[in-house]
Design brief:
- The N and C termini lie far apart (about 75 Å).
- Helix 3 crosses helix 9 and helix 7 packs across helix 9.
- This protein is about 35% helix and about 20% strand.
- An eight-stranded mixed beta sheet has the order 3-4-6-5-9-12-10-11, with helices on both faces.
- It contains nine helices and twelve strands.
- The relative contact order is 0.14.
Length: about 300
């Protein structure tokens, strides 16, 4: 008799448990994820207990595609309202080292989760011109500057996108179709934002309104403030000095070597977003430690 009562109790308990699982899962068959309870796996491999995180700390998103159909990827860290945006590879294979330093920053943040404080987000777009960069190196899993073995003429050709447009002449600040690069004539596109790559950056900026932006170029060495007709924003002067002091580059309030129509950072200034151009010293060295120091200084500046 006692065994019969125990068996009945066990059957009742199993029935109640099964009913609860079916209720919680909307009548479908319960899965392993339903049974593990309150644990949620993030893409960093960490497990958070209690409730699902609203937003994963480390994530990737495709913000657009190149003219040749290649994805433009943003790597995002942190979940705060203040967003610092770093961009490399706008000139593709001609300035491949700007993508190297961007990938190096991504690796550094992944290895140092405390790099991004609470209340902030750091976003890195390492390759804004994937068509140009892919013509001289396979960058899918990161690369070193020494991996680029193309000739000088091939690197120059890799500066442009698939439509032979200089993307840093395609933004809406003093845009011109017939643009200049040093003493050369280059295409600024058929109109401002005619190219899918610049459209992707425009749409990302308009949707996310980053607090400040750093764009890497090469070569020349220096940190340059941005402006578009209305002078340099006071905050832009501040972050130019902050980045320069931490990195060891010299700070400049303007770029006076030659006219740059349709420039990306100057368009950002037109949007009232503080933005700086960081020119690496050569086309080969990424000067990673200097630029990580500069990036870290900006993070600390905006975390105060």
């Amino acid at each position: 008799m006692k065994k019969t009562i125990i068996a009945i109790i066990i059957i009742l308990v199993l029935g109640i448990t099964t009913y609860s699982l079916l209720k919680d899962t909307g009548g479908r068959v319960a899965t392993k994820d339903d049974i593990v309870g309150d644990q949620t796996q993030t893409d960093t491999g960490a497990t958070s207990t209690g409730q699902t995180m609203e937003k994963e700390w480390s994530r990737q998103s495709v913000i657009g595609q190149s003219e040749d159909g290649k994805n433009i990827v943003a790597y995002q860290f942190g979940t705060g309202d203040k967003e610092l945006l770093f961009v490399g590879g706008i000139h593709g294979g001609y300035s491949a080292n700007t993508s190297v330093v961007a990938f190096d920053l991504i690796d550094h943040i992944n290895d140092n989760n405390d790099f991004v404080p609470e209340g902030m987000q750091v976003t890195v777009v390492p390759v804004l011109n994937p068509d140009g960069l892919s013509s001289v190196v396979n960058f899918e899993n990161g690369f070193k500057s020494s991996d680029v073995t193309a000739s000088e003429s091939e690197k120059v050709a890799a500066r442009f996108n698939a439509n032979d447009v200089d993307l840093n002449r395609n933004f809406d600040c003093e845009w011109q179709s017939n643009a200049k690069w040093q003493s050369k004539n280059v295409s600024g596109g058929s109109s401002a934002f005619s190219e899918s790559e610049s459209q992707a950056m425009r749409d990302y900026v308009n949707s996310n309104n980053p607090t400040a932006v750093v764009v890497w170029y090469s070569a020349g060495g220096g940190v340059y403030a941005s402006s578009c007709r209305d002078g340099v924003l006071p905050e832009t002067i501040d972050i130019t000095d902050v980045y320069a002091k931490a990195s060891g580059y010299k700070a400049y309030e303007s770029y006076d070597f030659y006219a740059t129509t349709g420039d990306m950072v100057n368009w950002l200034a037109k949007q009232k977003i503080p933005a700086i151009s960081v020119l690496l010293t050569t086309h080969t060295s990424s000067e990673t430690s200097k630029n990580i120091d500069g990036a870290e200084a900006l993070v600390k500046y905006y975390s105060n």
